[in-house]
Amino acid sequence: MKDAAPQPIYLSDYTPPAYLVDQVHLTFRLSPDRTRVISKIGFRPNPDAQGREFFLHGEGLEFIGAMIDGIEISPDITPEGLRAEVPDAPFTFEAEVEINPAANTALEGLYMSGGMYCTQCEAEGFRKITYYPDRPDVMGVFTVRIEGDAPVMLSNGDAITQGAGFAEWHDPWPKPAYLFALVAGDLVNHPDRFTTRSGREVALNIWVRPGDEGKCAFGMEALKKSMTWDEEVYGREYDLDIFNIVAVDDFNMGAMENKGLNIFNSSCVLSTPETSTDANFERIEAIIAHEYFHNWTGNRITCRDWFQLCLKEGLTVYRDSQFTSDMRSAPVKRISDVIDLRARQFREDNGPLAHPVRPASFVEINNFYTATVYEKGAELIGMLKRLVGDAAYAQALDLYFERHDGEACTIEDWLSVFEEVTGRDLAQFKRWYEEAGTPRLKVTDDFREGTYTLHFSQETPPTPEQEEKHPRVIPIAVGLLGANGDEVQKTCVLEMTQAKQSFSFDGLASRPIPSILRDFSAPVILERETSNAERAFLLAHDTDPFNKWEAGRALAREGLIAMVREGAAPDAAYLDAIRMVARDETLDPAFRALALGLPSEDELAQSLHEMGHTPDPQIIWQALEALRNARAENIEGLARDLYARHQVSAPYRPDADQAGARALANAALAMISRMDGGALAAKQFESADNMTQQLAAWSCLLQAGAGEAATRAFYDQWQEDRLVIDKWFSLQIVHASPEDTADTAARLATHPDFNIANPNRFRATFGALSMSPAGFHHASGKGYRVLADWLIRLDPLNPQTTARMCSAFETWRRYDQQRQTLIRTELDRILDTPGLSRDTTEMATRIRGV
Ligand code: B3K
Ligand code: ZN
Questions:
Q1: 221 carries an active-site annotation
Q2: Are 763 and 640 within one domain?
C-alpha cells in the first residue's frame, strides 16, 4: 500500500498568518519549458499572529536565488516550501525560480493548453508558480509584467503598458493568490462594452483561439445580463475598467473567477446554435453569471481558509440560480436543481464521501469542491432566506457587503450579519453547516372536528466520523387543498426545530389534502405514506409547481419500484396521470417535458437501498425500459400530436420558450421512436439545423438500435469541432446496451481523437461509462475494470480529475456481495498503484473505508 498516509488538516488548527503582504511584483519570462518567475513581495509582521515563523509555500519550483531587503539569503527549502530568517519589521522578499509549463499536465499552476499559457491557482496552485503564502487570508496588491512573444498577454486588473514583447498589468484590489491569473497566446477577442450604473465604462472581451470568434456572442450577452442583474438585485457593481474572459480547451473544471480575468473551459463559454444544445446554452449563461457574481461573493469578500469554501460557493450558486430563475422559468429551474441535488448531493450525503457543508478536516482541498459544498451550500442560503424573509435577507446581504468588503471571512461572520439584522439566534441553523447527512422527515396527519394536524419527526442517519446528529431547524412550506382542488390554505412556512413536532390548522370544513415541502423548502427526504390517488390529485391540482411535478415523480417512482421488486406491470395510474399532464395545454411545455422525465437508474437504486433492498442495476434498467415502452404504446397518438404542435418554426433562439417547446417535442420523439423504429427521428436528424434537434434525434436512433449511419454522419460532419466530438464520444457510450457499455468506452479510448490529457474528452468517455449504471455495474465487473484501468493511467498526469472521477465507486455498498467484492478489488488496485497522488489516495481511501 502507500508509503506514508497523507496527513489531514483541521479547521480547529487555524492560526492567523505570521506575515501579511502589501505589494507583489511578479515578472514572467515566458518559455514553454523554462519560464522564469521573478517576485518582489513587500511583507510586514501580522500583529495578530501567534508565531513568527516565515514560511512560503512552493512546490516543484527550481530555486534560482532569493534576497531579503536586497541581501542574498540561503533559505531552507523543502518539497513544501521555503523558510528563512527575517527582520521583525516590514521587509522586501525577492526570489527567482524556474518552472516548466509544458510539462504541467496536472493543469494546476502555470500550464500550456493548445500552445497557449494559462493558469489555474484555486485552491493551492499558486505555490507551483512561485514562493508565496498561498492561503486565502493573505491578500496583496499585484503588479505583473509578462515578457514573451505571444501576441496577447493578460493578467488581472487593468492594463498599464503594452509594448513589443511585454505587457504590464496592475490589479488595485488586494486579493489572495488563488485569484491570480495569467494568459498568453495567439488569441482573438470578441469585444463589447458595459456602462455600470454609476457610470464606469468597462471594456469587455471574450478571448478565444482564432476560428472560435463566432462562438462568443451568446456568452457576451450573458455577461452583460449578469452585470445588470447584480446591480439591480444585489446592488453590486463591477469595479475595474476591463473584464476579460478567456476560453481554454484543457481545464479541470467549468471555469474560474480570477479577478478581472475569468478563465473558462471552452465548453462553458463557446456556443453556436449548430454546435450547442439548449441545455448547453443555459449552462453557459449560468456559469458566466456564476463567475461574474464571484467578483463580490468570493473576490471582494473571500474565505479566511478553505474550510469556509461554501461561504463563496454556496452563496454564489444560490445567486446564479436566482439569476437563471429571473432570466428563464423559476419553477423549471427549481425542479431541475432538485433533480440535480438528489442525483449528486443526496448520493454523496448518503455514502462514504458524506461531509458537512463546512468540513472540519481535509487531506486535499481539491477533493472538497463537491455537490455538498456547492449545491447543498446553496440550499442553506435558500432556507435562511425563507426563514428570515426577503426583506431581512436583503438587509443582511447589504450589511455583509458593507462590513466585510476586502476581508477574508468565515461562516460565523456570515451568520452574524443575519443575527444582527433579525435578532434571531442562528446557533441551531449552524448545524446545517456542521453536520453531514440528509435528514429524513417523516410525516403523519389527522383530522378532528375541523382541525387538521401534521405530525413531523426528523432524523439524520450517521455519516463517516459523525455518529450523533442533532435536530435541525427545518423550514417546511405547506399548503392545503380541498377535495375539489381549491386551495384552502395558502403556502405558509412551518418552522420545525425539534425532533418531533406537530402543527395544526383550524376551521376546516373537511379533511384537506396536504402539499408538503412546497418548492422543496429544505434539502430533506420526505417520508409519508400516501396513496396513488392522492398523488394523482396533487399532480392535477397542486398550485405549487414543484410539488405538482413531485407528485408525478413519486407516482413514477412507486410504480417503477413495484416493477423492480415484484415484477409488477407498468402502473395504470401513472400512465393515466401522465397522459393528462402531457395534454394540458395550459401548462408550460418545459414543465410538461420535465413531468415526462423518469427517475434515473441511480435514483431508483438509491430509493431501493433506502428501503432496505439490494438494487440490481440490470433489473432497474429493464424496468425503466419496460415502462418507457408501455408509455410509448399507451400515448403514441398523444406523442405524435405533441410533436407536431411543438415544432418551432421561428429562427433558432436559445431562450426558455423555444427550449421548452423543443424539450417537449423531443420527449415526444423519444416515445414515437420506440414505436416507429426511429423513422421520424431519422427525418429530424436529416433536417435539423441546430444541435438540440440533431442530438435528440441521434440519441433516439441509438436507442432504437438504428444509429449506425447517424453515428458515422455525425462524426463526418463534426470531426473538426472538439466540443461536438465530446458529445459523439459520450452519447455512444450512454446509449450502448448494458452488455456493451464498458467495451464501447474501452474501444473509443483507442480512437485517434481520444486524448487522455484533455479532461473534457476523458470525462466524455469515462464519465459516460460511470454514469450508465446498468453498463458500469455489469455483473462481470468489466465496467469497474475499464474505469480503474484508465484512472490508474490518468493519475500520474492529472490527479485532480482522477480523484474526482473516483466518486463513480462511492455507491458500492448499496450493491450485492459479488459486486462489492469486484469494486473493492478495483479500489485496492488503485490504492496499490506506486506513486498514487495524494488526491486519489484520499478519495479511494475514503470510498473504500476499512
Ligand atoms: N472557484 C472555481 C473552482 C475551483 C476548483 C479548484 N479545484 C470555480 C467556481 O466555483 O466558480
Ligand atoms: Zn464558484
A1: no
A2: yes
